[in-house]
Amino acid sequence: MEFYPLQISNIEKNTPDCILVTFEIPDQLNELFNYRAGQYLTMKIGVNGNAVIRHYSICSCPIDKECRVGIKKIKEGVFSSVAHEHWKKGDVVMISPPTGKFCIPENLSDPDNYIAYAAGSGITPILSIISTLLRKQRNARIKLFYVNKTSASIILKEELEALKNQFMDRLEIFYFLTNENRSVSLLNGRITPEKLDIIFNVLADITQTNHHFICGPEPMLLMLRTYLMNHGVSKDQIHFELFHSEGTSKQLVKNIAKEHQDETSEITLIEGGKSFKYVLPTGSNNILDGALALSADLPFACKGGVCCTCRAKLLEGEVKMMVHYGLEDDEIEAGYILTCQAIPLSEKILIDYDA
Ligand code: FES
Questions:
Q1: Is the bond preceding 217 in cis, omega lying within 30 degrees of 0?
Q2: What structural domains does the chain harbor?
Q3: pTM reported for the whole predicted model
Q4: How far apart are CA 1 and CA 302, in angstroms?
Q5: Ligand 1 pocket mutation, candidates 99, 242, 303, criterion most atoms within 8 A of CB
Q6: What spacing in Å lies between the alpha carbon of 109 and ligand 1's midpoint?
Q7: CA of 344 relative to ligand 1 center, distance in Å
Q8: Which atom of ligand 1 is nearest to the CA of 245?
Q9: For the segment 20-75, what is each residue's pLDDT rounded down to a tens digit?
Q10: Contact 180/151 with Cβ under 8 angstroms?
């Protein structure tokens, strides 16, 4: 993964625990940092001699030729603490070019109806997507269902309201609050299947909605995905990005480790033409984390089975994938795996990231 020095051209507080950071893209990097709405940047900083890498979705609209991310302060978060407490205008941050598959599909029909669902900082790629859709497609109509704790913690509220004022007849926003009570009970608390029943009875027609964009924590994403698929929405109409992944299921990993007690897996990874060999107690960890713990330099982002940054081809051996939201059925058929979700099962494993 290549990182380039980008200068902070603006930094501002958006909510008490979220900052918006804009980066200046020099002319020679323009093409490399050209992004699609919904993609994210990978950033690297040094903390006590260790490299700390994090991924932040771009919240600006590519049409504006701006590159801005929102960084929410996480309790005891190493990266977000540095960004919140030390970053200032003019500082330089090492950043890898935009990537990610959570994007607006190509060849959209016009007019189109969309629904977006976000929770907390999950609004960052969603804002980029909805502002791009509204500006690119004259007839795009969007409903946004957005969950936060309180009205003061709504990230990018000013930007959303400005967008709503600009596209008054084409954008509707419904703010759900989990720690504040309001008179409309539908909007109190998280989005649930019962509330979706009401939404699709009263506010939106599920059969007339062409695409659904979801960004938030795993339970919300899974609930929405299951609900939509159970109500006839096809897989290719549901686009999602996982935030704050809970990662692989600890219990499942434990069970596999128990079954393969005292066994080891010899794993060979080919990446960028080089090979990296290591041994992992069978079923003890996923292939990516096992290699990263030994300082291997491998691509990854969400570690939640969504972004496919860690995708590679299994050439030999057997693994168990915990989840694989981002892989298509034909990719799985062809032997592709997500190394962040793959628990080794066999004695020898050969994986090629370059395939
Ligand atoms: S790192 Fe995102 S799917 Fe593995």
A1: no
A2: 4-99 (2.40.30.10), 113-242 (3.40.50.80), 250-352 (3.10.20.30)
A3: 0.77
A4: 15
A5: 303
A6: 30
A7: 16
A8: 2
A9: 999 999 999 999 999 999 999 988 888 887 777 788 999 999 999 899 999 998 87
A10: yes
